Amino acid sequence: MKLYSGDLSPYSARVRMQIYAKGITDITLERPAHFGMPKFREDHPIGRIPVLDIDGDMMPESEVIAEYLEAIYPEPSMLGKTPRETAHIRSITRIGDIYIMNNMFMLSPQTRAATRNQGIVDLLGGQVVRNLKALDKMIGRDGFACRGRLTMADCALTPALFLVENVLPAVGIENAIAVNANVAAYWAAIQTNEHAAKTLSELHRGLEERREMIRNGSFDKIMAAAAAAHAAAETATT
Ligand SMILES: N[C@@H](CCC(=O)N[C@@H](CS)C(=O)NCC(=O)O)C(=O)O
User: Fold this and answer.
1) Which of 14, 51, 57, 64 is the most exposed place for a label (fewest CB within 10 A)?
2) How far is CA 69 from the centre of its chain?
3) Ligand 1: centre distance to CA 5 (Å)
4) What is the pTM of this model?
5) Which residues sit with their C-beta closer than 6 Å to ligand 1?
6) DSSP string covering 126-143, please?
């Protein structure tokens, strides 16, 4: 199997952390060809990574891939020992994925001051701040998201909090983690876990690469080329 993935993709990072924690060695990690271009969307209609390639059978969506990997590699389990424990892990996972990561991902283009829309920042940034407060009441107090061990919830929260720490200040929202004492303690602790640390080092590598591309102008060129290619593909099909 292959996981189409990218260093800076938080959704891919969530699955990578699970792969590392479970010790899975027969999934290769690849940056997909044509990512962001019409050809990628032709082959993968949602047009996003991660995608798990199972001998040509393409599975999109990080949550779906994560659950699939749990089903086919049940040990070590990153779910609960009872259905209720698993439900709790999934609730925390959803806070990471839907309530934090999705808003952060949609917010990230607003880090560029020249094109910032303050209404979008207030809406999505406000949601992240509210959801971190909720997480503060629900998160484990022993260095893990829940159950006192690494679970799928940690895999979702680690890239989500990476985005909060590294992207939110760039839209003017400071200290969103620090004001939530339990989230702050969790964030300090989980970074010492070897699988989280490996995933975070990849995310930081991706962020540095992206910042360099923005500085040297290549990111804008790639985005402009992708927009032109999508417009041409739309014209060709209408
Ligand atoms: N709900 C999807 C979201 C995946 C997603 O948004 N991936 C981003 C990278 S982190 C992407 O591929 N973006 C490309 C695009 O928006 O065209 C999942 O959980 O896998």
Assistant:
1) 57
2) 17
3) 10
4) 0.96
5) 9-11, 36, 47-50, 61-63, 105
6) HHHHHHHHHHHHHS-SSS
